[in-house]
Specification:
two-stranded antiparallel sheet; 3 helices; single chain; 2 strands; alpha+beta; about 80 residues; about 55% helix; 2 domains
Length: about 80
């Protein structure tokens, strides 16, 4: 939520929820909205990782094999332990 009007945005978010919403429903919706807005802000500031970088980071932590394609479209596999 933009910090300049967080309270008003929170009120609008709550007003859009069903009348039988629980505290957990409200907290979840606020959490998701905050994460989405932070992600959009990071993207606007260039704080992102491309798909290939994410695959590499994930595989390094979990020791998985990956399949890649070279510049000619030929497939090859490699494993990171």
């Amino acid at each position: 939520m933009p910090t300049n009007n967080v309270k008003e945005n929170a009120r609008k978010l709550i007003d859009r929820l069903p009348d039988d919403s629980t505290w957990d429903d409200i907290m979840y919706e606020m959490y998701v909205r905050q994460k989405i807005e932070r992600g959009l802000q990071d993207a606007a500031e260039g704080k992102t990782t491309d798909h290939k970088g994410v695959k590499k980071q994930y595989s390094m932590r979990n020791g998985i094999s990956l399949e890649e394609r070279d510049s000619h479209g030929k497939s090859f596999k490699f494993a990171i332990q």
